[in-house]
Amino acid sequence: MIIAIPQECQQGECRVAATPLSLSKLLKLGYQVHVESNAGQYSSLTNQSYSQAGAVVEVDADQLWRTADVVLKLQPPTLMEIERMKTGALVISFLWPASNIPLMEAAAGRGVSLLAMDRIPRISRAQKMDALSSMANIAGYRAVIEAAGAFGSFFTGQITAAGKVPPAKVLVIGAGVAGLSAIGAARGLGAIVRAFDTRPTVKDQVKSMGAEFLEVQLEESGEGVGGYAKEMSPQYIRAEMELFAQQAREVDIIITTALIPGKPAPKLITVEMVRSMKAGSVIVDLAAEQGGNCELTRAGEKYRTDNQVDIIGFVDFPSRLPTQASNLYGNNIANLLSDMTPAADGNLVIDLNDQVIRQALVVHEGRVHWPPPPLENPIPKPTESPIQVGGRLKSPDGSLEKTWRSPWLWLGLGFVGALLLIGVVLEAPPGFVQRLTVFSLACLVGYQLIWSVTPALHTPLMSVTNAISGIILIGGILQMSGAWYQPAVLLSAVAVLIATINVVGGFLVTHRMLQMFRK
Amino acid sequence: MQNLVLLAWLFSGLFFIISLGGLSQHESSRRGNLFGLLGMALAIAAAILTIFGSNSGTGATEALDPNSLTATSSDGLNLGTAVVLLGALVVGGLIGTLLAVRVEMTAMPELVAILHSFVGLAAVLVGVSHYLGHPPTATETGTGAMHLGETVVGVFIGGVTFTGSVIAWGKLSGRVSSKPLLIKGRHYVNLGILLACLVFAAGFLVTKSTAIGVCWLAVITLLSFVLGAHLVMAIGGADMPVVVSMLNSYSGWAAAATGFMLKIDLLIVTGALVGSSGAILSFIMCRAMNRSFWSVILGGFGGEVAAVTSGGPPRKHDTTSSLETARWLLESSEVIIVPGYGMAVAQAQHPVWEICKILQQRNVKARFAIHPVAGRLPGHMNVLLAEAHVPYDLVLEMDEINEDFPHTGVVLIIGANDIVNPGAQDDPTSPIYGMPVLEAWKAEHVVVLKRSMATGYSGVDNPLFYLENTSMLFGDAKSSIDRVLQELKSLAGVSR
Question: Which residue from A62, A74, A357, B128 has the least number of CB within 10 angstroms?
Answer without folding.
Answer: A62
